[in-house]
Amino acid sequence: MDNQREESANSSGTSSCESPQCNIWASIYFEHGIVVEERFRSHGRLENLENAIVDYEKAVKYAEPNHGVCRSNYHRRLEDALVAYREKVAELTQDSHPDEAIRHYKLGDASLERFSRHGKLEDLDKAISSLWKAIKLAPDGHLEQANFRNRLGDALLARFERLDSIGDLDGAISSYQKAVDLTPDDVHKPPHLHRLGGGLEARFNRLDDLEALDGAVSTHQQAVELTLDDHPDKPLFLDGLAHAQEVRFKRLHDLKDMENAVSSKRKAYDLTPEQHQYKQVRAKCLEELEKECIVEEKHLKAEADAKRLKEERNAIEAKRLEEEATLMNSSSLESLESKIPLMQKSIKLTSEDRDSRLMILGDVQQARFKRLNEAADINSAISNYQWAVDLTPDHHKAKPSRLMILGDAFRSRFRRFGKIVDMDSATSNYQRAVDLTPDDHSTKISYLSAFRDLKRLEDFDSAISNLEKSIKPLDKRHPDRPNRLIDLAMAYQARFERLGMKKHLKEAISNLKEADEITTNDHPSKALCHYSLGDALRVRFEHFGKLERLGDAISKLRKSVEMSPDEPRFLNGYGRALLTLFEHQNKLEDLESAISHFERAVKLSPQDHPRRPHYLHDLGNALRMRFERLNKPEDLENSILNLHKSSELMPNGHPDKPVHLNGLGVAYLVRFEGQGSRADLERAISTLQEADALMLDVHPSKPSILSNRGRALRAGYERMRKLEDLNTAIQSLRTAAEHRDDQSGNLSHLLNLAVALQERFERFGSPADLESLISSLKKVVTLMADNDPNRANCLNTLGKAHKTRYELLGIFTDLDRSILNLQHAVAITPDNDPYKAHRLNNLGSVYSISFDKREMVEHLQEAVSVQDRAVELTPDGHPNGPTFLSNYGDALYRRSNSLGDPEDRKSALKAFTKAAKSAVGHPRQRFDAALKWVQCCRDSKSAFDAYTCVINLLPQIASPGLAVADQHALLAEIGGVARDAVAAAIEAKNHKEAIEWAEHGRSIVWRNLLSLRTLLDDLRPVHPELADSFQEISQQMEAPHSCTWSWLVNGRKS
Fold it and tell me: How far apart are CA 92 and CA 137, in angstroms?
């Protein structure tokens, strides 16, 4: 990428070191930059500062190297301009400038250029942060989105080259790919493809990822094909293609790649102009590559000839050996012993029909395993079956049957030795066999039957039984006892993870503790003991434990890492424990340490390692949590990238596949909540639904999947208002909450259920939903710790729910429970909490209701007290201020009427007046406060002032956008209010205002009536006769003889 910019610059201008005038040009650019910068200082236009920075950069570029003083001045001026630019951008972005995205992009670009000059990592981090902001702020369809993504890719790739973080490399590739996707197939696309190819090639160099290398070749090829031969960058793109083809040749030794590389280099040379400075460089590279191609061609031909002759001889000998082994039909042990070396030698001699001979050898070794029960035989059988399966293409008719045989062998080894990874491998191979078999094939049913049988628990029972039998005769000093105990514990733990039965986890921990006790610190399995016991203790804490017990798990897992610092499984296990600690203590350093260990586990695990999907899944979840804590977009993008990879790598049918899909679905949901993309919401729902369908009902993770699915469906309801989404969400959340009543995870499921029930009740008012809401919230409050930050909110919501049920049923017990819960919520909410005033206001309203219904004066006194406190805690200018003031006035007005204190009436009048005249708050709340102000008035002057406020607020509440039913109710209310206001004005001898108010009310009513009449325009094309009938009735009702307007103006019915 840097080469591309360098070549383009050098081809369009004079080299800074070749021209004697280069220093003159440097001075010209520098002086012009000063002039433009001064223009910025005078007028404040950021474009001038941007142009000055460009001039200073050119001055630095063209300055002669031996002019140190000049170069120093140019650099210093450039640095000062960049600082001013950052400050100005920060100032503009605070005010939501319309070019905010462009500003952040330019700031990121400037920081990246600064990094390229000075190599300071902080500049690179600033560049990435600014470019992320530019992308986030740019709306969909923004013309510069592709450039933003491209530059972000450059920055992430630069940080990868500095820090060697795979997350940065993958983020760069993802960013380049998005730039490509956003760009049509025109002249602008090849540079993006060129960069993407470079990123993919970097991934191959770092991880030996052949898929990435293939992608690099095809991407560079596409860049070349989209570029015309007369384009100056065509040779550069051909160079990139040639390099990728040459790298692939060196990895795979396919001569075609070398020939293609030569062809690409030759064309790059041919298209380079004669006077171009890279002409000679390309000529030399082409010459060297052609010579290398000739040498490699001769070498490969010689190797192929020798190999062919050897294979011909070996094929003859292999056939003889196979025939000799076939003649041994006896299944006796002696016959099996004789067959194995013959088949092994036959396989080594030739690759012809090797897959078939490997299957035969595996069958013989498995037969001997059944006789002797030795691990070496079943291990060798599995190895040979796997080799044969790998040699068999997917379209081969024997592939499904060979996969089933391999799965059977893994299953046999699990039954004998209890290693859970063998059961996972058996599941994976059975699933592949089923997937590759056509639906109409006769064997499909038998394969499906075997696959279903595999999901039963007899295999676990068999494995546990065999392991317990093998351990029984071993005393505590036997060297095999620790490993057998660990295997037995893993089988018990796997059984727990599938069934959720506490006794199985207890057995696992018991066996692991014994293994830990009988192994010395220098025992080869000591680190494995620490890891296995620590992981089991972590699982126990997550399902049943107390926080102090997590410390034991962390201690054991830390020891395993200290003893084997490069073992991915131990690193990942320690990371999971730290992540669990973060979830309970919310300390960022625990999360950062967990991510560091997850990243190291991924880095150290081979691409084809069976545990790699698990490591990617845990890393993805941790990155999502860090995004939720720090709100860095790159964390969420990398989270989704890792979770998507883990789900793709996890074979279909694997018992952990639903857990991985669950993590991916949650990440999509989090991105939807932040960015609002409907595509992310749909991905979240479909992914979580797939996880739900695949997960067994008895699995301990089932409630989590159901709860997350319910959250996604509720989000879908909020976006598209489909009632079926909300109903399905509640059903899913209720199932999750009822799944296990005694475990810690149930609290979050109940909270999610309560939110959904409250939403449906508020929309439809179903008493059944209210009952369920109260029941769920009671359970939440019971389960929740006293210091839980959500406790006050839950108590407040429960108190409001009891109040609502009282209003429906009139049972005083609900009123008392509402008061108790709201009192508790207020008591545990600190005064500096922004919700304290809300909760006081809720409590005051319930006290007022209690006084109205039961005439309990002490509750009236409490109502005044807590409403006064709510007003006191509400800052000036808060939008809820008018509501709290109005409710405080209500309580004072009640007390004035009850106890007859005139001061209360004066204070109420003052509260209503202040609420009505507030510059903030919802107009309807201020309008209602103004009406209460009217109610408090005792003389015509005060009433006139109150009605003035009422009339002024009328236009703000009479919005034509209201629903039809609300419009009709509002029109009736406006008529009555306007009539009373006109009467008050006449009584106060303000006849001019009376006429103005009458006309004002009339105009508002007419405006809203006309907005209702437009409904006829929609009705007429469909039902013209009905529309005419409606219009006729409307005209009769609005005829001049109607009494409506005379009543409104005169204040009485005619």
Answer: 14
Token digits for 145?
């989105």
* CA-closest candidate to residue 200, choices 227, 221, 231, 184: 221
Burial of 538: CB neighbours in 10 Å, binned 0-12, 13-18, 19+: buried
Which residues contact residue 166 at a Cβ distance below 8 angstroms, ignoring those fewer than 6 apart? 160, 206, 207, 599, 602, 603
Torsion sign over Cα 700, 701, 703, 704: positive
Single-letter code of the amino acid located at 108: G
pLDDT in tens, 535-577: 888 888 877 766 567 888 899 999 999 999 999 999 999 999 9
For 378-410, give the secondary structure using H, E and C. HHHHHHHHHHHHHHCCCCCCCHHHHHHHHHHHH
Give every CB contact of residue 433 below 8 A, 6+ residues apart in sequence: 399, 400, 401, 403, 404, 407, 447, 451
pLDDT tens-digit map of 171-223: 999 999 999 988 888 888 999 999 999 999 999 998 888 899 999 999 999 99
Contact assessment for residue 963 and residue 929, using Cβ atoms and an 8 Å cutoff: no
> ∠479-480-483 over CA atoms, to 5°?
120
Amino acid 324: pLDDT:
58
Closest CA to 884 of 865, 869, 866, 871: 871
Measure the CA–CA gap between 587 and 931, rounded to whole angstroms: 52
Decide if 203 contacts 169 (C-beta within 8 A): yes
Is pLDDT above 90 for 593? yes
Whole-number Å distance between alpha carbons of 391 and 840:
73
- Cα–Cα distance, 982 to 128 (Å, whole number): 64
Is residue 567 within 8 A of residue 535, CB to CB? The reply is no
The CA distances from residue 795 to 699, 754, 780, 805, 809, in Å, are 32, 12, 9, 15, 21
pLDDT at 19 over 50: no
CA 14 centroid distance within chain: 49
pLDDT at 1048: 29
Distances (CA, A) of 1031 to 370, 1013, 1025: 93, 9, 10
Q: What is the CA radius of gyration of the chain?
A: 39
DSSP string, 434-448: HHHS-TTSTTHHHHH
Least confident of 437-451, 776-790, 798-812, 895-909: 437-451
- Tell me the pLDDT tens digit for each residue of 672-725: 988 888 889 999 999 999 999 888 777 778 889 999 999 999 988 888 878 888
* Residue 921: closest CA among 951, 885, 970: 885
Of 205, 203, 186, the closest CA to residue 146 belongs to: 186
To which residue do tokens 């009702």 refer? 1037
Neighbours of 251 (CB within 10 A): 13
